[in-house]
Amino acid sequence: MRVALLSLGLLTGIVTSASAQLGIGRPVGRTIVDGIIVKVDNQIILKSDLDIVYAQEEARAEGKALPLDLRCKILQQIVMNKLMLAKAETDSVVVEEAKVNGELNRRMAYFVQQIGSEKKLEEYYNKPLKALKDDLRQQVKDQLTQQEMQERIVGKVTVTPREVKQYFNRIPKDSLPYFSTEVEVGQIVKLAQVNDKAKQEAMAKLNDLRARIQGGESFEELAKQYSQDPGSAVQGGYLGFFKRKELVPEYEAAALRMEPGQLSPVVESQFGFHLIQLIERKGETYSTRHILLKPETGSKDVSVAAVQLNKLRTRILADSLTFAKAAKDESDDKATSTSGGLIQNQQNASTYIPLDKIDPAIFFTIDTMKVGSISQPLPYRTEDGKDAMRLIWLKSNTPPHQANLRDDYQKIAQAALNEKKNKALDEWFEKNRTTVFIDVDPQYDECRLLQRTL
Known about the structure:
By secondary structure, the chain is of the alpha+beta class. The chain is 46% helix and 16% strand. Residues 1-20 form the signal peptide.
């Protein structure tokens, strides 16, 4: 059973839209006659599950013809995921609730930021935020379980340089892909700093709320009313159980200094200002609730970030500091700082991005830049809506060319690794498919879901 790990965007845990992540969206403008099409032990696959993913692939294709066997490949991937869930149950693979809660909170915060506010999200789905979160919980838990199972199957799979060369040599010369212009771009981001007045206002507000709670008012009700953490506010600020080092250090230190039921003083972290209440300690885990306030930033605060970036730029140009080292140590964008500031291609996780797929703001910046040069500090708004400044570094600019090992080793190695992981998954499926009950609706017999097609 050939599993398209990357081309379909269907790897466990990868989702492409808020509706898909919430698990409550349906293809727009379509009437879906639903029903069970596959059973994998006590796991079921509905026709709507298949239709939703296929509709997403159609939207992503932007009018281009899709492969005739795409629907079967999607269904194969879904069956694989369901088999992983079934085996996880028999093998007692359990995802901790703290991890589920953390991912739930992250996604809800993302949804709210994308749509504009909690109220707009509730209006769009005609459900309160807590109900949306409850709808999403099982899907998130299943995805995390699938990730854990997949990691056990392919996590240790690697490729050697010899295997990469052998993979490349197997590709017919007339089938080698032709790459358009690609660039490698790095960034160093500095967030706007909150001015003292805004900080004092947030701290005063939380101290007022602290006094009200000590006076007998409900922490949960005040969290629902005032907290700016959308993921937990709907649950009265409840974050659930976490292990040590899973939350930011300032928050954890304050929580673990308290006894259950106590309130912390105001705590500052990278997310804003918190009022924390410890609920319970259980072994190596602890549970808390909090009220989060995020002070507003102003234009003067952005100028401070620009000064910091100018100093870094001067040091890098003077060769006293590398861009990668500066990004790792100084950038406020954690998604890129670990890779030396390099922005990843979301399609294949490489650092080479086709010029026509680059962010327009970056495109017009690098259009006049020479390879190796660094921009002046530029205004930037992060994905979660924060004001910032950033430096842009054009590391490389590769002209259009046919694939070769010298220029495209990273991409070819990734493709070779994906092929090897696919083979490991195929072998795992073949070994385990007879250990569970799988029943396929006859109308999908042509997909040969229970046959190995290596």
